[in-house]
Amino acid sequence: MQKRIIFSGIAGILLLMSCQTARMASIATKHLAGDSSLSQAHTGIAVYDPQKKRYLYRLQAEKYFVPASNTKIFSTYAAMKLLGDQLPGIRYVELDTAIVLIPTGDPTLLHRDYLPQPVADFIRRAAKPLYIDASAWSTPALGYGWSWDDYSAYYMAERSPLPVYGNVVRWYQVKGKKEQPTTPADTVDTFIYSDPELDGPVNFGKPERSFRVDRARDQNAFTIIEGDEKRAETDVPFVTNGVETALALLRDSLHKEIRILETPLKKSLLLTSKDIYSRPVDSMLQPMMWRSDNFFAEQTLLMAGSALTGQLNMSSGVQAVSKNLLQDIPDKPRWVDGSGLSRYNLFTPRDFVWVLDRMKNEFPWERIATIFPTGGKGTLRSYVGEQGRLYAKTGTLSGVIALSGYVITKKNRTLIFSILINNHQQPTAVLRARMGSFLKELIERY
Question: 136 lies in which domain range?
Answer without folding.
Answer: 86-280
